[in-house]
Write a structure and sequence with these properties.
- The protein is mostly helical and 275 residues long.
- The longest helix is centred in the first third of the chain and has 47 residues.
- 22% of the residues are buried.
- The termini are far apart.
- Among the domains are: 49 residues; 123 residues, Serine Threonine Protein Phosphatase 5, Tetratricopeptide repeat, CATH 1.25.40.
- Keywords: Cell cycle, Cell division, Periplasm, Signal.
- Mediates coordination of peptidoglycan synthesis and outer membrane constriction during cell division.
- This is Cell division coordinator CpoB.
- One of its GO terms (cellular component) is outer membrane-bounded periplasmic space.
């Protein structure tokens, strides 16, 4: 009997040890995978830190050269943003799958019911939906935009009414305030264009040119771009910058050959005796 007890104990020890070792090894694997996920998250956080001074090159001899440089830089940044978006989405997808696998394995190790596991939460949370902006109408009427705020619409209508009443000083002030208050508005380009016309009404060609440049830079291929570019060229001509005016007006036909503003631009070039 005294020999039987040690034998039984030794059998129990050797039979329990492998199972315990296997559980410990599985938990260690899970811990290691969590460490890998933590490293990936830290890498993503480092993406939010700057690496030094910006390397943008927005110089140019003419207004259009600078606008073209800005347009090229925006295209470069857009492409880079799309690359980063794809990379981050890949990491989020892979991390979410790994977390789901870890949850399954932990519940299984603890003896729980894996069938009760719900859908794994997306790593980093769910991104909010982005509403796309509707295009601005091609005339001076306010487009039918369901998402346009009541105050935003009212401010634009007040500025538009002042311009219609030829109260140019008030109109210019209201359109400038609108652009500052609603910089991302679907009416921002139209507001800048109409602010330029208000300054033209005041005889202030310099401020008008700045407003037209803001309208064109705001959307270089939108429905208002041909008109903004023409008005910019005409304003430069009134400022005595004939060379810049001729180059800008020539760009109307080159960029927008089908636009009705081409005829107006050519007429203005004839007045300025452009070569």
């Amino acid at each position: 009997m005294r020999l039987l007890k040690p034998l039984i104990l030794s059998v129990l020890v050797f039979s329990v040890k492998p199972a315990f070792s296997q559980d410990a090894e599985t938990l260690a694997d899970i811990r290691q995978e969590l460490s890998v996920l933590n490293v990936e998250i830290l890498k993503l956080k480092r993406e939010l830190s700057t690496t030094g001074a910006p390397s943008t090159n927005l110089v140019g001899d003419t207004v259009l050269d600078r606008v073209t440089a800005i347009e090229s830089e925006l295209q470069r940044l857009t492409a880079r943003t799309e690359q980063m978006d794809f990379r981050i989405n890949s990491i989020v997808r892979d991390g979410t799958n790994r977390i789901g696998d870890l949850e399954f394995r932990l519940v299984e190790l603890e003896g729980g019911d894996v069938s009760q596991l719900g859908e794994t939460s997306t790593l980093g949370g769910v991104a909010p939906e982005v509403k796309t902006e509707s295009p601005v109408a091609s005339n001076n009427q306010i487009p039918d935009l369901g998402e346009l705020a009541v105050a935003e619409r009212a401010d634009f209508e007040a500025a538009q009414a002042a311009l219609g009443d030829e109260n140019f000083s008030v109109a210019a002030e209201k359109f400038a305030l609108f652009s500052q208050t609603y910089p991302a508005s679907p009416l921002a380009v139209q507001a800048s264009l109409m602010r330029g016309k208000a300054h033209d009404g005041l005889g202030d060609s310099r401020e008008a040119a700045r407003a037209y440049l803001a309208a064109f830079s705001g959307d270089t291929s939108g429905p208002k771009a041909p008109e903004a570019l023409f008005e910019l060229g005409a304003a430069l001509g009134r400022l005595g910058q004939s060379d810049q005016a001729c180059i800008t007006l020539a760009e109307v036909a080159q960029r927008f050959p089908a636009s009705p503003m081409v005829a107006s631009a050519e007429s203005e070039r004839s007045k300025l005796a452009c070569q």
